[in-house]
Each structure stands twice: as C-alpha cells, then as structure tokens.
Amino acid sequence: MTHPRHTQVAVVGAGPAGLLLARLLHRAGVDCVVLESRDRGYVEQRQRAGILEQSTVDTLRAAGAAARLDREGIPHDGIELRFDGRRHRVDFPSLTGGRRVWVYAQTEVVKDLVALQLAEGPPLLFDAPVHAVEGADTDRPVVRYTHEGRERALDCDYVVGCDGYHGVVRRAIPAGFTRVHERTYPYAWLGVLADAPPVYEELIYAHSERGFALASMRSPQVSRLYLQVPGGEDPAAWPDTRIWDELDLRLGAGADWRLTRGPITAKSVLPMRSSVTEPMRWGRVLLAGDAAHIVPPTGAKGLNLAASDVTVLAEALADRYAEGDTALLDVYSDTCLRRVWRAEHFSYAMTSMLHTAPGQSSFDTRLQLAQLERVAGSPHAAADLAENYTGTALRPDAVGG
After folding, report:
1. Range list of H helices, 232-330
2. Model pTM?
3. Whole-angstrom Cα distance, residue 297 to residue 223?
4. What's the chain's Rg over C-alpha atoms?
5. What is the mean pLDDT of the segment spanning 169-174?
6. Among all residues, which ones are annotated catalytic?
C-alpha cells in the first residue's frame, strides 16, 4: 500500500474519538491519516461504553454514521434508581425538553466508523504503532511509526492524540507544560456480559449497603451488568453463581425479585478513577478523549466526552483550513475543558451518591440516601440529573448549556 508522507492532520488512535474526528474532517475537506497500534479485530472488539448522549447521536447522524444506530440502537427515556427498598424512575424527556439517550455499544460505533473510513475516508492504518512525535512546537511536526515491518515518518500540520492516557502523543508534551488533576476511588466495577434478556427496559442504578450495582443491556438478548468490588479484585474470585446471587441482592430493592439468569460470556474488573489534563493543547499537539480526561463510568460520560471533544475540534480545524481562521482552534482547550469539568463533577456526584466506600459510616450512608430522596422528591434535582445524564451543550456557555 502507499504510505502518505504528509497530511494536514495526523490522528493517533482508532478508537471512537479518532475515528469520529477523521470522519468529520473528511466531510469538511480536511486531509488526515489515522494511525492505530492494534489490529482491526482488536479495535472492533474492545468492550467499553454503551450509552450515547443525545448530542453524540446528533453528531453521528450529521456525519452520516448513524444508519445502523438508528436501526438497532435502543432509545431510553429514563433510568430507574433503587435505594432503601424504593424504586424511582427519572423521566428524561419531560425534564429536559425531549432529550434522551441510546443504548448502542462502543464496539458497534467503532465498527460503523471503521467501515465508513475504509470505504470513503482518508487512510486508516492498523498495526501501525507510533513511536514518537517530534517538533510539536514547530509548524511541521513529524509522527514516527512502524507499519508493515518498516519505520516510517509522517509530517503534518497538527497531531491529535486519541490514543488514551498512556498514549505516545501525551508524552510529546514536555513535562511542566501540563497539569494533571486526578482522583482514585477505593473500589472498582466487575463488569459482565450475559446471554440473558435484560431485567428491565431501562437501566437500573442501585444503591445498597452491600455495594453498588447496575443493570444495563447490549441488546434485547444480552445483558451488561456491573457490581461494585474492591479495587484490584480478581475476576476469578467471582464465579457465575456468586455474581447472579449478588446482583439479585443488590438490585432487589427489598422485594422478592430475581434476574433472569444465563451464561456469562465475559467478565472483567474496571478501575474507577478521574483524571483531567490541562491544557488539552500544546503547540501543534492536541489531545482528545481519554488522552485528556478520564471519568468513572457511573455517569456514562467517557465516550460522550470524547465525541464532544472531536466535534469541537473538527469545526475548529475546518475553519483553519477553509477560512484561515484559528480563533476556534486557539480556544479549543478552554471550550472543551468547561464541559469536561462539568461532566467530571456529575460523574463524581453519581459515583459518590451510589457507591459504598470501605469503612463507610452510617452518617455517610444517610447522606447518600438523603441525596437520593432529593432526586426522587424534587423536580429540580431530578432535572439536574436528567440534563447532565442526557448531555449538556457542546459549549456550556451557550444558552441552555
């Protein structure tokens, strides 16, 4: 295959952030090349998020990447909270002016974007690990990578790091030019996929003295389920029967209630932490998605924040090349970070409200229940949760953001 030696934008990482950015740039007439260290099969099977905000769906539709999402995605108009023997549903459309979310796994978003990229878009190179980004503070940075057994160089105008927190692009920014804010939580999630129909038509978030539990889904036949477990827990310590028994106890809301059981096909432990890197740009290097920020999964913000980053960035780069105007590019980091911090706060609030910390006192538990009671009893508190869950405006300073 022909390996380009120059492009306007080099995108490192073919997760949802990098692929969506490439799609948006292609439609705006901006040249780019996507470099991914893993093979296509690995990329398309990475299990991650499953909830898409209204704005993410709107972006995918505008990008011509939502045909299968609109056929197979499962729209949800609310979530159910279970706590202290109670069940309370938060109705999104009535609280947000019609906004909702969709259940559509990140794996499916990636498959859709990969297919479009290979059929219509600019080059997408799998098995192409990036080793270094040089000259990030010049007007012609160089990305050095390996593909098909040879060392190669790609010079470009801008490098976008969509390669995660441990990616190479972050390391191109010299120490001292960014600040990282972090929080580590003293628990994790045991996540499982099960060939069993979902227990409820929407997601269930359960507070329990035994720990948090979440009942979600991937399809009408496949459940995605989570249990709070100690940090660093070994999934092997949780045989299938133990998982189902614990889910029944935590999700039961004080009732004689049981899930429909089925074969568990995958299980893994997900660490819980928050991280924000400021700023999200240095010279000609820009960060997006997990390369810039990580949220605990409780608020379903990770994939959606990545989508909002690249939506803002694609518009800024389109202006740069179509009009020679760098105004949006110059404020890219500030624009994104306002929304990032709002999402970080929401994810922290949801996590703190629903999880039982090691050694938690009865006072702390009563505070959690008081907050849950407030959501259940106050339209204003419910509206705040619904607005943040379904997604705030891409620019939080905009009307309604």
Report:
1. 240-251, 302-323, 327-330
2. 0.94
3. 17
4. 21
5. 92
6. 76, 205, 297, 301, 389
